[in-house]
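Need residues for this backbone.
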């Protein structure tokens, strides 16, 4: 037993030493901006990247900074203007920023940045109170067809992924998206209280936000917005129930404008190494994120299509002209 324990300690020490050696060999000093306050999804993504890059020895140092304001617009402006040409700078962003740019009529946009890669994705879930007469997505479709304004939705900020999903769902159901009755809440706790209090018809968020109340039997999950069912989860997708719709809350990283082709290539290679590392795989597992890695021309095309899709939906629901 003593020999086995000693051998295990030596093996762990060897792994730790190899990681330290790799870190020592790396000369990369990377900076990652989270354009939001500490504790949110973008901040969590940036600090998870920092953890994986350092633990895997891909970077010598990784500095994370938080730049808050206007749904990420202050950070985006800093990236585009102050960080222009900086080949060691990255910024975390995602679906929510696409809508925030339009809502804030921002003079700087994601098209001005240098796209690097999509990293993660999280499916949305549509829930109703456990005592609701709505049992599945087909029942919700029927309610919207009967009177779209009588169906009240609880979710996050106006123009965010929750709002977009509600509007797209209404459109897929054959209802007028501009007439949806969407109630934005600043936090998941407030939306949850509205649902449990019977003040809204349905709620939308990431699965993790409602998981506890679903398992406790207080909320009923009627559909997930992913292309397939979540692992270990029997909740059917929207497509399974005849609603031809898929929406994921994705997060990605971009670099400043004005970097060289070689700098972009180097940053892209760093991110590719990170997403293929066991350290990143473990972080994804711990946080319940899906690996949605997409890079190169495919990510460029995806980003352009999402910007167009979100703009179209926000026009339909009257948030932008």
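Answer:
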């Amino acid at each position: 037993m003593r020999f086995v324990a000693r051998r295990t300690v030596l093996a762990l020490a060897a792994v730790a030493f190899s990681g330290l050696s790799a870190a020592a060999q790396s000369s990369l000093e990377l900076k990652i901006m989270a354009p939001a306050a500490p504790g949110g999804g973008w901040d969590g993504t940036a600090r998870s990247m920092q953890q994986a890059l350092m633990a895997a020895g891909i970077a010598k140092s990784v500095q994370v900074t938080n730049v808050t304001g206007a749904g990420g617009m202050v950070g985006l402006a800093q990236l585009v203007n102050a960080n222009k040409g900086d080949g060691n700078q990255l910024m975390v962003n995602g679906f929510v920023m696409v809508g925030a740019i339009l809502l804030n009529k921002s003079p700087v946009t994601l098209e001005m940045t240098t796209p690097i890669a999509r990293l993660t994705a999280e499916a949305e879930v549509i829930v109703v109170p456990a005592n609701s007469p709505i049992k599945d997505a087909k029942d919700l479709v029927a309610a919207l067809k009967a009177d779209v304004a009588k169906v009240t939705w609880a979710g996050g900020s106006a123009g965010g992924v929750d709002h977009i999903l509600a509007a797209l769902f209404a459109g897929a159901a054959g209802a007028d998206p501009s007439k949806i009755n969407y109630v934005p809440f600043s936090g998941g706790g407030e939306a949850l209280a509205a649902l449990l209090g019977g003040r809204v018809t349905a709620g939308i968020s990431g699965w993790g936000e409602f998981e506890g109340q679903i398992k406790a039997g207080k909320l009923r999950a009627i559909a997930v917005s992913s292309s397939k069912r979540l692992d270990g989860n029997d909740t059917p997708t929207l497509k399974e129930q005849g609603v031809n719709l898929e929406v994921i809350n994705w997060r990605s990283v971009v670099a400043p404008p004005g970097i060289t082709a070689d700098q972009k290539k180097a940053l892209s290679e760093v991110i590719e190494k990170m997403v293929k590392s066991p350290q990143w795989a473990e972080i994804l597992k711990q946080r319940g994120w899906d690996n949605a890695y997409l890079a190169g021309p495919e990510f460029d095309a995806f980003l352009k299509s999402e910007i167009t899709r979100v703009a179209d939906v926000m026009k339909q629901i009257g948030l932008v002209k």
